[in-house]
Amino acid sequence: MIRVQSEDFDLAAEVAAMSGGNLAIGGVCAFVGLVRDFADDDSRIKAMTLEHYPGMTEKALAGIEKEANQRWPLEASLIIHRYGRLEAGDRIVLVAAASAHRSAAFDACRFLIDWLKTEAPFWKLEEAASGTRWVEAKGSDGEVAGRWSRKE
Amino acid sequence: MIRVQSEDFDLAAEVAAMSGGNLAIGGVCAFVGLVRDFADDDSRIKAMTLEHYPGMTEKALAGIEKEANQRWPLEASLIIHRYGRLEAGDRIVLVAAASAHRSAAFDACRFLIDWLKTEAPFWKLEEAASGTRWVEAKGSDGEVAGRWSRKE
Amino acid sequence: MKLVFFAWLREKAGTAEVEVSPPDTVSDVGSLIEWLKEQGGGYGEAFADLSVVRVAVNQEHVKLDHPVKAGDEVAFFPPITGG
Amino acid sequence: MKLVFFAWLREKAGTAEVEVSPPDTVSDVGSLIEWLKEQGGGYGEAFADLSVVRVAVNQEHVKLDHPVKAGDEVAFFPPITGG
Predict the structure, then answer these.
(1) B39, D61 in Cβ contact below 8 A?
(2) Fewer CB within a 10 Å sphere, N or C end of chain D?
(3) pTM higher than 0.80
(4) How far apart are CA B151 and CA B144, in angstroms?
């Protein structure tokens, strides 16, 4: 399941809703991304605003989730990404994968967040004491996602 | 933090308690292990009883957590393992790691569960229709944990 | 053809969304960008460094040689920074 | 010396915990096991296949050549299956 929303989410409720009642699940791996209070250059951050591309965001997330389910034997998967203004400490994103075996759950969960970071159209505008600034993409995100590329 | 308990746990509350207020955390990776309704040989399982070695269990878990914190720059880590009788669908274990960066959170979380599976003294007694049976260790768990061995 | 802009590309272009009717010589994303720069406004600044411009046509990531035609939704944005 | 047994080793040994005073010839885990087998009871069956027996001395995983002495807590159990 994918969801794009401005509201916060409850980790336990979301994981329970995703996996509840499926007794084939042996493990759930979940990753929660949070707003840190410092930028990549170590300057202080009070808050940020996440802009996204409605329509394409949902399409990209659904595509990433589908790809994960094709690569691993998952019993359930979940992507929730927030948009709008978020303060330091707030939750930004939740990705989770459930499988009979922990290895698939871990690998799929990591794939979901790695790919989301290069495929899903979100942009962060940071609020520092000196003003606002668009976050620059990290080259390392592309490299990390590249690791998952299929060898055709 | 480590905890060995018979009671269930709430994923969201535990992760919030572990990471709450630490604004240096950019990501939390959590893994929850659940009781499946089938055994490794595909026979049906109704429930299981987890026996452990009080004293050594806490010592082993504390050692695993300490090792993870030495290997990765973690802001917080958590291991909760239950014992006693658990039914299919019940939560068995929660491991979680929080870091400024997602890569450390993922790697440390996986290390925690991989090592726990070969170091922490727990034994599962499965209840099938045909009676009870001690679960046999999987050779693959030792191999997986072996991947983490330090090259001296 | 509908153009949409996000993040600092939206700020530099001075618009979030605009309908355009480029001439027939505009056949792909690259020639669309060249044509937009000729139209003036904030487009020159928005497209000054194409190494930091990403493009989607009909909500799929594409490269500069991807064809564009009437009716398409073409989006311009910086490298993404979500998650 | 305190011996503790877990899982099917506890069931086969017929005891969860027992105090023993082995002779001085028992210097390591291996010789302790041999001595226990000579004592009869369920120990023969418990230690029939040492490839599936794991040992901890004072709550640390050890091998069969690990020394044991008076006052130690020696635990016998199958390969662990937690998590």
Answers:
(1) no
(2) N
(3) yes
(4) 15
* Nearest residue to D53 via CA among D36, D69, D39, D40: D36
ipTM of the complex: 0.92
The string over B62-101, giving b where at least 16 C-beta atoms fall within 10 Å of a residue's C-beta and e elsewhere, is eebbebbeeebebbbbbbbbbbeebebbebbbbbbbbbbe
With contact defined as 3+ CB pairs under 8 Å, the chains touching C are A
Instruction: Name the one residue in this structure whose structure tokens are 């159990």.
Output: D77
- Contact between A60 and C54 under an 8 Å Cβ cutoff? The reply is no
CB B108 within 8 A of CB B99: yes
Angle at B60 between CA B56 and CA B66, to 5 degrees: 145
Residue A51: closest CA among C52, C62, C81: C81
> Which stretch of DSSP H or E encloses residue D31?
helix D29-38
Contact flag A36-B25 (C-beta cutoff 8 Å): yes
Express each pLDDT in C48-61 by its tens digit: 999 999 999 999 99
State residue A27 phi and psi, 5-degree precision: -160, 145
Element (H, E) at A99: strand A91-99
Partners of residue D62 in chain B, C-beta under 8 Å:
none
Tokens representing residue D46 in the block: 């418990």
Do B40 and B138 contact (CB within 8 A), yes or no? yes
What are B92's two structure tokens?
């068995």
Give the three-class secondary structure for A52.
Answer: strand
Residues in A closer than 8 angstroms to B37, CB to CB, are: 23-24
Out of D7, D56, D60, the one facing B123 most closely (by C-beta) is D7
Q: Which residues of A touch B24 (CB under 8 A)?
A: 36-38
Q: Where are the alpha helices (DSSP H) in chain A?
A: 11-19, 56-71, 102-119, 139-146
Name the percent of chain D lying above pLDDT 70.
100
**Per-state percent for chain B, helix, strand, coil, to nearest 5:** 35, 35, 30
Which residues of chain A have a Cβ shorter than 8 Å from any chain B Cβ?
10-13, 15, 19-21, 23-34, 36-38, 88-89, 100, 102-103, 105-106, 109-110, 113, 144
The residue type found at B85 is: R
Following DSSP, what letter does each residue of C13-37 receive, concatenated? HT-SEEE----TT--BHHHHHHHHH
Residue B16 token pair: 């919030």
Q: Is A122 on the interface with C (CB under 8 A)?
A: yes
Q: Does B92 touch chain D (CB under 8 A)?
A: yes
User: pLDDT tens digits, residue range C7-43?
Assistant: 999 999 999 999 999 999 999 999 999 999 999 899 9
Does any CB of chain C come closer than 8 Å to the CB of residue A16? no
